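seq as requested:
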Amino acid sequence: MEYKLTIGTFLIGAIITIISGLLVGFHDKVANNLGSGVSDYQNYKKWGLIGIGVGILVMFNIHTLILSSLVKLIFNV
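struct tokens:
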């Protein structure tokens, strides 16, 4: 598969990264209002950091390379 950087995936990845960064920054307020409070702080921060990683992968269109190699490995295509 050929690597191609597009503006659309870059913008979607940037949006995912920004939203996840805000979640990491305000994880305590989000956990207090949506979760169980102090016991959920680390879970919200963890999912925010995972979101930042996924956002960076999408931003540079690396997710398609990873997913296509995974499909080739599983289905022997």
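Helices lie at 7-25, 27-34, 41-59, 63-75.
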